[in-house]
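New to this. Please check this fold:
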Amino acid sequence: MPQDFTDRREQAESAGPRPVRRLLPALSVIGLGLVAVVAVVLMGGAYSLTGAIVAALLLQLLPALLNNWGVPADWLTILFGLGVLQVLTTAPRGLADQVPRDLAKLGGLLRGLVRRPAPSEGGSQ
């Protein structure tokens, strides 16, 4: 056994300096995950089942999309932060409440544009 230990030590010394590994403490990793969960719950809507479904979709799909597009993982935190700011300032009940209302308003505007008569070209005298 002592010979085996010396051989490994010599191999390690001949390989050159070992790279320094910087590991995040477990608490900070858990903290980042918790921040992401709270962010998507606020963005989805904490007061409804639909909000929980939206939050789950955001939590699973957004990281996968960014990974497929080759975007660094740090941008996910930035996007979640911007999403929370947007939801807190414009829709405190989350996207599950805001999106249907916004789509209904958009539908009303589009129906109003379709129903509006075109201006006559001849003009009235």
